[in-house]
Amino acid sequence: MNITVIAVGKIKEKYLKLAIDEYSKRLSKYCKLNIIQLPDEKTPDKSSLKDELIIKEKEGNLILKHIKDNQFVIALDLKGKSITSEEFSKVIENCAISGNSNIVFVIGGSLGLNNSVLSRSNYKLSFSKLTFPHQLFRVMLLEQIYRCFRIINGEPYHK
């Protein structure tokens, strides 16, 4: 299985880079992982709604350039479906069973995802109604993907 994570924004903190490296290493047992880090657009402190829509559109266009037609796209969105780790593992497993072995997870910038990206997605997933720093969220996503593969393979995992 091929897993791609497209994320807007740069990881600056060393401890987060180390965590991403650790989960990337763990995931190599289960899948081929590709992380695409895209630059975020700077949002002015007093940006208007119009400014924010323009920023989301620019980021969205950049994201879409990295998505191929044959990829199953899971958008991380506050309005997406909130599920358990076990249910998440079923989503991943069902992708593999139905021939969708190229899965792309999309993490937007600080303003969220543009409607064009949400429209392209096959599944919208919410981890929580809470807001997380995007850099930390990348680690959380990789941990949950790793947990999914552990569940799918009947291996122990922390409940």
Explained architecture:
The chain contains five helices and five strands, in the order βαβαβαβαβα. By secondary structure, it is of the alpha/beta class. It has one domain: Alpha/beta knot. The protein has a five-stranded parallel sheet with strand order 2-1-4-3-5. β3, α3 and β4 form a beta-alpha-beta unit. The longest helix is centred in the last third of the chain and has 19 residues, at 134-152. It is an enzyme of class 2 (transferase). It catalyses: pseudouridine(1915) in 23S rRNA + S-adenosyl-L-methionine = N(3)-methylpseudouridine(1915) in 23S rRNA + S-adenosyl-L-homocysteine + H(+).
**CATH superfamily, please?**
SPOUT methyltransferase, trefoil knot domain
- Helix fraction, binned, reads 40-55%
Helices and strands: which structural class?
A: alpha/beta
Largest sheet, in brief, is: 5 strands, parallel
Proper CATH architecture: 3-Layer(aba) Sandwich
Subcellular location: Cytoplasm
Keywords: Cytoplasm, Methyltransferase, rRNA processing, S-adenosyl-L-methionine, Transferase
Protein name: Ribosomal RNA large subunit methyltransferase H
Organism: Clostridium oceanicum
